[in-house]
Known about the structure:
The protein is an alpha+beta fold. The protein is 56% helix and 14% strand.
Amino acid sequence: MAGSVIIDNRTAVAFSSRGFEIVTELTREVLKITDPDLIAIIFESLDGECMPFISLDALSGRDVERFYVATKKAFADWQQHNPEPFSDWQELINRLETDQRIN
Length: 103
């Protein structure tokens, strides 16, 4: 079963099951260090089997930006050890960069 990150009511990025697991786990690890309060807001209702998506739709601009920064850092860290491309993760970063809630 695949998973998605819902950015707003018009934008979502779909991942394979494994890709979604990598993105959510590594982003959560960064947030544990940088913004632990954001983990509950984003991941509290996530259940990989029953609810394979996370939604950023209701987040404030500041929270979307904090998620974006964590996702971008997690991706950079992942790329250091994994030379193969991960286009879905790059697409998520690109879409977050164009989100109107971020400055």
